[in-house]
Every structure is written in C-alpha cells, then in structure tokens.
Amino acid sequence: MVDIQTVSIAIASGSVVLAAIYYILQLRHQITIRKTDLLIRLYSTMSSSEFLDAEWKILSLQVKDYQDYVRQYGSLFSENPMHKALALVASFYELLGNLLLRKLVDIGSVYDVMGSNTPKMLYEKIKPVVLGARRETNEPFAFAGFEYLCDELVRKEPQLRNTWAKTTNTSNEMKKREQRLQPTS
After folding, report:
1. 76 — phi, psi (to 5°)?
2. Is 107 a member of any domain?
3. Environment class of residue 111 by beta-carbon count within 10 Å: exposed (0-12), middle (13-18) or buried (19+)?
4. Considering the domain boundaries, does residue 112 fall inside one?
5. Average pLDDT in the 153-174 region?
6. Percent of the chain at pLDDT above 70?
7. Chain center to CA of 131
8. 112 and 25 inside one domain
9. What value does the CA radius of gyration of the chain take, rounded to a whole number of Å?
C-alpha cells in the first residue's frame, strides 16, 4: 500500500522536474527573443540615413590599391568624409561578422535580413584599403570580422537560397490551394 508520504514525495519530485523543464523552455525562448532584438537593432542602424549615405559613398569608391586611396583621400588617420564613411560601414559589418563568429547571430538570419550582395560588394570595394591598413598599422586582423562575414555568406549562399526557394514554393503552393478552395461566383 502507498502511504501519504510517498505520494507527497512523488508529487514534489514531479513538480521539480516540471519546473526545470519550464525554466529550460523559458530560457530558450529568451535567447531567441534577445537574438531577434539584436537583429532588429542592427537593422535599424543599417537602414539609417547616415549609414545609407556612407554605403553609397563606399560604393562610389574607385581605387586600385591602398596607395591610390591615400593619394586620393589622405592617410586613414586624417579627417576626411570618406574615412568616416569607411569606418562607419566597415565597423558595422566587422561587428556583425564577430557576432556571427561567436554564434550570437546565425548566418540564416543575417542572410534573411541583410542579404549577401551588399556586404560582399562593400568588402570588395574596401578590400585594398583594408589590406593596406593592416600592413600600415601592423594589425593583421583589422576588419577580419567583415571578411569572415563575407566568406561565410559566399560559402553558405547556395544553401541559404535553397531555404528561400523552398519557402517561396511552399507559400505559392498554399496560395494556389486557397484559390482552388474558394467558391466561384
């Protein structure tokens, strides 16, 4: 026969297990919310007028190498609107690349929100400047996060595009089904 003490121990144990499961689920949910919030804040920065102006300035950059950049705009340590634009854009993508490296954001979310063409085009534009700045400042990892971000986007792009294609096909199939089910008048 089961006594009251055994039943109360079983209920208490079950309650502790349920509380632990609930806590784990809440923790996972909070991590998702924080990552989403981070991406929203990053997107707000990326879509600001100042950032977009800086991106356009970088995309108009026409330099062959670091020396050509210095001839046109002066040393990186001088005051120049191009240096400010370069620092703003490169620092943003540097941060994003480092967050990706540390697994604080995932490549799928970055691709979904920011795409891959713009970061890759921007990095290609500033690559000669970055390589020269690395040599000049003896900082071999300057903007390595930005480079890492672009490398990961290139590496994972086929898989990421497939995900969107599947989602789009599923979405289109659902719309077709809904149209077939609607009564005709």
Report:
1. -60, -20
2. yes
3. buried
4. yes
5. 78
6. 89
7. 23
8. no
9. 25
**Whether residues 10 and 70 fall in one domain:** no
**What's the pLDDT band for 113 if we cut at 50, 70, 90?**
confident
CB half-sphere exposure, 153, CA atoms < 13 A: 23
In a domain, 123, yes or no: yes
DSSP-derived letter for residue 138 is: T
What total number of domains does the chain contain? 2
Give 3-state DSSP helix, strand, coil % of the chain, rounded to 5.
80, 0, 20
Distance CA 132, CA 70 (A): 10
Structure confidence at residue 27 as a pLDDT band (50, 70, 90): very high
Q: Amino acid letter at 136? A: E
Please state the pTM of the whole predicted model: 0.77
* Residue span of the structural domain in which 160 resides: 48-168
Neighbouring C-beta atoms of residue 181, cutoff 10 Å: 7
Q: Are residues 76 and 134 in the same domain?
A: yes
| 52 and 132 part of one domain | yes
To 5 degrees, how large is the angle CA 182–CA 184–CA 185?
Answer: 135
User: Is residue 20 domain-shared with residue 53, that is, in the same domain?
Assistant: no
* 185 confidence band (pLDDT: 50, 70, 90): low
